[in-house]
């Protein structure tokens, strides 16, 4: 049994930030988890109150608090609308590191985070093997979306309609790159992120095609590590530190103007969370981190704001697409106009807005694994809004949302492709 | 009965998943938006049907268990802090159905847990209007609004929640369903028991269904902002507007401290040396609105506003309201704790009240920003502090006492809209009389002999 006193002492570090919550309760209006469970302990106000009580040794059941703390999408909807400006994401991430660090990780999480994620080459090799065998246990269910389900694995994965591992992940399809700036005079470091690399390599190919078209030099080093969000969200500070250091070393080796990713979650992690969780790092590492984070950009924002891609509207659009604002892109990074512009840069596509376009899809990384029922209820609302828009396909700038939305559409039997804006734009290029 | 046995009985009524016993769940219902000490309830229940709600009330009474009904828990007076003697919290958020919206007879029937803004939006879809708009409407419940008689920005012209309550069906302590009011505009069948429920803060009955009046929406509106170098001139403008028989739907006030914090927070373009800002909106028939708006601008200028801006389109209107919307967030960000008070005075006394508040702030070395509803004299002096600093918080408490003394001496009231709850019950007698308290206690005693209905609120004491 961990020493609750020491846990309390560590949490007191967050007391100044937690004290700014005025308990107004306005977060109840926006929290997707609360909308489903309607339990105060699941909304920000309740979580902060419980953490405060743990810090002040007013609650005994630390495991109960840990449970509530982890029942959160980390979607940032509450932070974006909190009238008191509480630094909610700081509190939640740091509290997860403290509480989960203290209570310990579950064996399954430990195996994934410590045994695989922090060893990029091993991780790639293991998943490569998994791809070879996945066909034996799963069967395709929706050709348009490309999803599968599995009776045999259902005790582990439930009734999910998941997207299988790609036959050839991006890191096997393209060799490491280091090309000089072309016509644009710019060079970027390209960080595809795990999901694009392993599940949506087509998005990575689209990015490379677009960058080449615009004469942008690319640094794509081999064996990139995960951005660290699964470790940070699980409060596994050790694994998180390893991943950040590994990536910082890798990307400090080369000069580039921007680091771009097609994953809203990776961009938000690098840009927001790396600096947030770097208090304890040596000054030298902090400096290298901020040098990278300052240059990090979402691919949509890079193409529109830096390269100057513009919408082309000639009234000849033959396809309709509705756009889902990923929480990380819109609420953390403020990127919401650029992906729409990028889609409209393809004159064949017309954007039809759905209701609640910026409402969380319910994925929330490992939230989906541990609270699948709630995740699914949140996801169904997104699916209903997508279908109600009448658009023939949906686009979003984050592969985690792409997975969740694919699962929801596939389970409902909807034949609607799920695509990244950059794929749509890349279609216009030779 | 032991808690375990009682828990089983409640489980039989509302289902296992709707009885919360874990420490973490119970602790999350120990507070509301008031700055008060939390109290952890013994049990938390969430009935999903009206029938189950009635049974829960009866079971609490049979077992001598104090009960506190909780909507969204946004009240600012401790109205949902449970009783320390094994108190039970009953949640209404699963009782959230709009039962009827009658477009012919202009009324709606709702369950108590319906969220105010959700209801207002449903009503608007049908081309009708439900005016009460407390700042918390995105989350507050209609049950909570009735139990606190919530106001909002439109109070001056449209009134407050009580002006829209046509009837309340509620449970008495024995679980009997008491019906009051009707779906007709006129109704004199018996005592006005629905009226008794308004502002009762859960101490006299547990609402099961509420019938609310709806009105046709105004066809047009126009907003303007007037800036003053002196509070008296702002107050004179308010008097002049009303003397000219114009009743704006909103007439909001920001004082110098609030203006400075708002500017600092969101650069709304307000002059930081201005002593007061009025935000005014008139609504109604388009022609009337144009006339009234022009008149308001003229009056404000005549009285001595240093600048008056009129919104020409929806975007400009929105920009004007930014300053008002930013008031609370701006003040709330300044320091960890935000004590939001609610003293209300006759509108002609606003300058005297503001002057007194500023003197109190100086005396106790506190930062106080005041904003609020100038049209109805309902001010929100907001004290920025850190409750963890004991010495400072003593000064805050002393300042609040003095603010109330001044409000009462100016023939005002302790609370315009935030309720009495636990926070202000000790001042009740000062504003009213000994007889008022005794009368209220006798009434409470006969309605609720065991004092299980939200004891300690409004008139204090259990028993
Ligand atoms: C940011 C903010 C802005 C606000 N702005 C305003 C404003 O502009 N105007 C205003 O008037 N108030 C305002 N308030 C105060 C508060 O929101 C209102 O008092 C609101 O009516 C409370 O609703 P609730 O659902 O949160 O009720 P709760 O806080 O849950 O409960 C309030 C009281 O109602 C009782 N109650 C609830 N449901 C029932 C029921 N079914 N039967 C019997 N009793 C019941 C409770 O026991 C309690 O005593 C604001 C609060 C905040 C935090
Ligand atoms: S909205 Fe912000 S200040 Fe209000 S209760 Fe939620 S976290 Fe606290
Ligand atoms: S981050 Fe998202 S899920 Fe978590 S408390 Fe905030 S709004 Fe709810």
Outline the structure in words.
The complex is a heterodimer of chains A (430) and B (463). Chain A is of the alpha/beta class. Chain A is 52% helix and 10% strand. Chain A has 24 helices and eleven strands. Chain A has helices at residues 4-11, 15-18, 32-37, 44-55, 62-70, 77-81, 88-103, 107-117, 120-137, 154-157, 170-173, 194-198, 201-213, 229-234, 237-252, 264-276, 283-294, 299-306, 327-332, 337-344, 367-370, 372-389, 399-411, 421-426; strands spanning 139-142, 147-149, 177-178, 186-190, 216-220, 258-261, 296-298, 319-324, 349-351, 393-396, 418-419. In chain A, the strands form three sheets. Chain A has a five-stranded mixed sheet with strand order 3-5-4-6-7, with helices on both faces. A four-stranded parallel sheet of chain A has the order 9-8-10-11, sandwiched between helices. Chain B is of the alpha+beta class. In chain B, a hairpin with a 4-residue loop joins strand 15 (367-373) and strand 16. In chain B, helix 1 (3-14) packs antiparallel against helix 3, helix 8 (231-243) packs antiparallel against helix 10 and helix 9 (256-266) packs across helix 11 (314-334). Chains A and B meet through helix 4 and helix 5 of A and helix 2 and helix 11 of B. Bound molecules: flavin-adenine dinucleotide and iron/sulfur cluster (2 copies). Flavin-adenine dinucleotide (FAD) sits between chains B (32-33, 68-76, 79-80, 92, 112, 134-136, 140-141, 143-145, 147-148, 150-152, 201-202, 206-207, 417-419, 454) and A (24-26).
């Amino acid at each position: 049994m961990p020493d609750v006193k020491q846990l309390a002492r560590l949490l007191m570090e967050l007391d100044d930030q937690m004290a700014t919550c005025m308990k107004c309760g306005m977060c109840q209006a926006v929290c997707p988890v609360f909308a489903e469970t309607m339990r105060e302990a699941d909304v920000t106000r309740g979580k902060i109150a419980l953490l405060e009580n743990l810090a002040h040794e007013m609650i005994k059941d630390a495991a109960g608090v840990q449970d509530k703390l982890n029942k959160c999408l980390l979607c940032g909807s509450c932070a974006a609308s909190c009238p008191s400006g509480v630094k909610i994401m700081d509190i939640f991430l740091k509290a997860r590191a403290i509480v989960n660090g203290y209570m310990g990780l579950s064996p399954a999480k430990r195996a994934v985070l410590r045994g695989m994620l922090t060893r990029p080459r091993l991780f790639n090799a293991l998943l490569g093997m998994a791809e070879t065998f996945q066909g034996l246990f799963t069967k395709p269910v929706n050709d348009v979306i490309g999803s599968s389900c599995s009776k045999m694995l259902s005790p582990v994965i439930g009734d999910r309609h998941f997207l299988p591992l790609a036959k050839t992940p991006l890191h096997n399809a393209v060799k490491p790159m280091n090309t000089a700036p072309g016509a644009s005079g710019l060079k970027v470091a390209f960080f595809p992120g795990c999901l694009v690399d392993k599940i949506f390599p087509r998005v990575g190919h689209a990015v490379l095609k677009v960058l080449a078209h615009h004469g942008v030099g690319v640094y794509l080093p081999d064996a990139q590590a995960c951005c660290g969000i699964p470790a940070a969200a699980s409060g596994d500070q050790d694994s998180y530190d390893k991943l950040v250091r590994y990536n910082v070393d890798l990307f400090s080796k080369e000069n580039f103007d921007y680091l771009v990713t097609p994953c809203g979650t990776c961009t938000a992690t690098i840009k927001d969370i790396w600096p947030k969780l770097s208090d304890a790092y040596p000054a030298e590492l902090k400096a290298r981190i901020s040098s990278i984070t300052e240059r990090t950009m979402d691919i949509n924002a890079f193409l529109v704001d830096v390269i100057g891609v513009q919408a082309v509207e000639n009234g000849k659009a033959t396809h309709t697409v509705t756009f889902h604002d990923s929480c990380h892109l819109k609420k953390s990074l403020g990127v919401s106009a650029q992906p729409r512009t990028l889609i409209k840069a393809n004159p064949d596509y017309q954007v039809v807005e759905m209701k609640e376009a910026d409402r969380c899809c319910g994925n929330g990384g490992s939230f989906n694994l541990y609270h699948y029922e709630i995740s699914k209820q949140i996801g169904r609302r997104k699916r209903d809004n997508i279908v109600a828009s009448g658009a023939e396909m949906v686009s979003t700038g984050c592969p985690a949302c792409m997975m969740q939305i694919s699962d929801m559409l596939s389970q409902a039997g909807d034949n609607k492709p799920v695509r990244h804006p950059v794929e749509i734009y890349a279609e216009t290029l030779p | 009965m032991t808690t375990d046995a009682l828990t089983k009985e409640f489980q039989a009524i509302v289902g296992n998943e709707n009885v919360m016993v874990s420490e973490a769940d119970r602790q999350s219902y120990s507070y509301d938006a008031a700055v008060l000490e939390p109290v952890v309830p013994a049990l938390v229940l969430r009935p999903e049907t009206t029938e189950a709600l009635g049974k829960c009330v009866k079971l609490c009474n049979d077992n001598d268990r104090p009960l506190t009904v909780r909507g969204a828990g946004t009240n600012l007076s401790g109205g949902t802090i449970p009783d320390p003697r094994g108190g039970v919290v009953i949640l209404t958020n699963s009782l959230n159905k709009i039962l009827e919206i009658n477009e012919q007879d202009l009324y709606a029937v709702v369950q108590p847990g319906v969220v105010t803004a959700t209801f207002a939006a449903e009503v608007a879809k049908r081309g009708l209007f439900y005016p009460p708009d407390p700042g918390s409407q995105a989350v507050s419940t209609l049950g909570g609004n009735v139990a606190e008689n919530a106001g909002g920005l439109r109070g001056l012209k449209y009134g407050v929640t009580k002006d829209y309550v046509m009837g309340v069906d509620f449970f008495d302590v024995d679980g009997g369903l008491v019906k009051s009011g009707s779906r007709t505009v006129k109704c004199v069948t018996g005592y006005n028991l629905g009226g008794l429920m308004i502002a009762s803060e859960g101490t006299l009955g547990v609402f099961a269904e509420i019938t609310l009046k709806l009105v046709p929406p105004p066809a047009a509106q126009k907003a303007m902002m007037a800036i003053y170098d002196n509070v008296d001139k702002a107050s004179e403008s308010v008097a002049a507007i009303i003397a000219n028989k114009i009743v704006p739907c909103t007439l909001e006030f920001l004082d110098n401290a609030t203006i400075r914090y708002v500017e600092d927070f969101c650069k709304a373009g307000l002059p930081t040396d201005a002593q007061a800002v009025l935000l005014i909106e008139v609504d109604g028939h388009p022609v009337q609105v144009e006339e009234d708006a022009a008149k308001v601008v003229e009056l404000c200028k005549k009285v001595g506003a240093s600048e008056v801006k009129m919104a020409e389109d929806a975007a400009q209107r929105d920009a004007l309201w930014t300053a008002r919307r930013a008031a609370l967030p701006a003040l709330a960000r300044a320091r960890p704790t935000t004590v939001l008070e609610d003293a209300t005075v006759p509108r002609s006394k606003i300058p005297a009240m503001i002057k007194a508040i500023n003197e109190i702030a100086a005396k106790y070395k506190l930062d106080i920003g005041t904003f609020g509803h100038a049209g109805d004299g309902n001010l929100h002096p907001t004290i920025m502090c850190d409750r963890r600093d004991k010495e400072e918080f003593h000064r805050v408490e002393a300042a609040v006492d003095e603010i109330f003394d001044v409000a009462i001496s100016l023939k005002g009231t302790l609370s315009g809209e935030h309720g009495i709850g636990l926070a202000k019950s000790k001042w009740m007698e000062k504003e009213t009389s000994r007889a008022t308290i005794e009368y209220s206690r006798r009434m409470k005693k006969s309605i609720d002999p065991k004092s299980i209905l939200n004891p300690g609120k409004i008139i204090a004491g259990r028993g």
